[in-house]
């Protein structure tokens, strides 16, 4: 039986992870859970899965959850804050950590869980965007498997498993195009928050949905794929595939194109990661190539004039060093400002670009360590706040 720690258990990926675990009680047990602010939901999860440890954001929330646990006659220990997340990520009893936290807050727990020898089912792309150099080295040094949970990276991983990486010529990441596929720059001038958060294919949290609308999410995935599969960003292509049936493709040295297909459902990549190295049973509807929306697959180029975030990400990936971390943190801060109603959609990516340009002029850290990454994170957030407010 695999013992699982779920970081970010109340978010979209966390909820679907628990759904997979719920189906296979003989295969998996939950030993730790973390959440930021969904206290009612984490209480219900604690009652159902009875983990050894749970972490919440604040001391006040921790007292609240402790009272509930006492009243219910449960025995889960409650911790809080950044150290609480690390405690859940490094819990001795856990052998696999599902990293489903959104944003830079997931980097340090993942780094510490690797050092403690846990396999990582990775859904937190910011971890590799900001800290890819030392995260991948730590995984190699500690013999830890990083199992991609993003649908695109899971697709690539499934296509190349068992094949020599030197035979991998190119990666082709697919993108749905987001809610503004086909829009012009003029059409984006007055889009509303409701339009931004209405993704045509995937049901995700606010931050990832905004990133999908700007195409920054795909840019982050380019850098993540570069680290995961040891391939430079200039050997990664992005193609808009509105049906979201082909989750990504790889081009091999002999010209063969391998693709992974399936319904747009995150349950499958989660199941693939949790059951690794085996394959689990079917828990999603059977793939029907004749079904409407599946029987006609189309591909389009991404318009980087309208969605410049993708070019910014390719540039950050080529330059490397601390620039991807700065880009990521600047984007996080700008997106949070947008979600909080403090800035408009069309100010998000210009703020990121301005921050990146200033960082390049000031001097990029060529080989960042964890401390310098977090310093870059702090600086980028302050820069964007000053620029937007």
Short summary:
The chain has 389 residues and is α/β, with parallel strands linked by helices. The chain contains 15 helices and 11 strands.
Describe the model.
The protein has 389 residues and is an alpha/beta fold. The chain folds into three domains: 2-148, Rossmann fold, CATH 3.40.50; 150-264 and 286-309, no CATH class; 320-389, Rna Polymerase Sigma Factor, Chain: A. It has 15 helices and eleven strands. The strands form two sheets. The protein has a seven-stranded parallel β-sheet with strand order 4-3-2-1-5-6-7, sandwiched between helices. A four-stranded mixed β-sheet has the order 9-8-10-11, covered by helices on one side. It is globular. The termini are far apart.
Secondary structure elements and their pairing?
Elements: E1 2-7, H1 12-23, E2 28-34, H2 39-49, E3 53-56, H3 59-71, E4 77-80, H4 81-89, E5 96-99, H5 107-115, E6 119-122, H6 126-141, E7 146-148, H7 151-160, E8 168-175, H8 193-196, H9 206-214, H10 216-229, E9 236-240, E10 246-252, E11 257-261, H11 267-275, H12 309-319, H13 323-339, H14 348-362, H15 370-388
Parallel strand pairs: 1-2, 1-5, 2-3, 3-4, 5-6, 6-7, 8-9
Antiparallel strand pairs: 8-10, 10-11
Helix pairs in contact: 2-3, 4-5, 5-6, 6-10, 6-13, 9-13, 10-12, 13-14, 13-15, 14-15
Q: What is the percentage of strand-forming residues?
A: 5-15%
The largest sheet is: 7 strands, parallel
Q: Count the strands?
A: 11
Which value, in Å, is the CA radius of gyration?
20 Å
Helix count from the secondary structure assignment: 15
CATH superfamily of the largest domain: NAD(P)-binding Rossmann-like Domain
What would the average pLDDT be, to the nearest integer?
94
Q: Can you tell me the number of structural domains? A: 3
Order of helices and strands: EHEHEHEHEHEHEHEHHHEEEHHHHH
Helix content: 40-55%
Low-confidence stretches: none
Distance between the termini: 51 Å
CATH topology grouping of the largest domain:
Rossmann fold
CATH class descriptor name of the largest domain: Alpha Beta
Main structural class: alpha/beta
Which architecture of the largest domain would the CATH scheme give at its second level?
3-Layer(aba) Sandwich
Q: Which strand order spans the largest sheet, edge to edge or round the barrel?
A: 4-3-2-1-5-6-7
Principal-axes shape call:
globular
